[in-house]
TrEMBL record:
One of its GO terms (molecular function) is ligase activity. Belongs to the IucA/IucC family. This is Aerobactin synthase IucA. The gene is iucA_2. It is an enzyme of class 6 (ligase).
Amino acid sequence: MPCLTEHIDRLSVQNLINAYCIEINRFKIIKNEKFNNNDIEFFDGKDVLVLTLLPLQQALYIPLHFFSILGQHQIFGKIYVRANGGYVEINSLTTASLILADIQYHHSENLDTFDVLSRWIESHQKLVTIMLNRAKDFETLFASDTLNFIETEQALIYGHAMHPTPKARIGFNKQQWINYSPETKGCFNIHYWLVHPDNTIEESFDGKSISRQLLEYLTPFMPQEQKKLFLQFPCYKLLPLHPWQAKFLQDTPFINSLLRIVY
């Protein structure tokens, strides 16, 4: 577990650092030969990404495993600040807090720091859940050269490399997230509603009715009770819904009022 935690810490803070560098563009790269011998040895001969963060004027020293001209840097795993005449390692949460404080200092009107930090922590926690759920699949997952669409979605373990909070999900509790997320191989049945055409809008490239095509496709698989329902409401349209969407909408006053009218 310690190795897993360290790995996820590195990935989570790496995403935040890369997003900061791309969006804010206040950083510099110090080549290893520019350091003195003691520093070169301390940083294990790595080039170092340096962020000088306000309002504390605090410099972060981030050894790089790989430097990318596209901004997708791979950090070595440890982050340091200058203190007591040397370098002191800081953890990922402290790093995230310092970076967000800098962004808020420069762009206070556009950033809710607490919201971003909570999303970053949530993303970190979700990544732990994914790794624990998918650990047994890693060897086969990344060894395959041919993945279908579903397998490709399920293979997005780490999320977007340039997104500061790639695994944050608003609205899902932990169990829902496990049940519904492709990264955890979530599997569930789609819900279908019959909806009066006055309450629907649909468009398609070829001008054909999507709801009609969907109904024609699904009809052979329906039991007789459902087929009778379509005969009872022939003008109604079939609306597919994610189960979370269906539950959310059922709890809204407007949808509740429609359900009461029908039943």
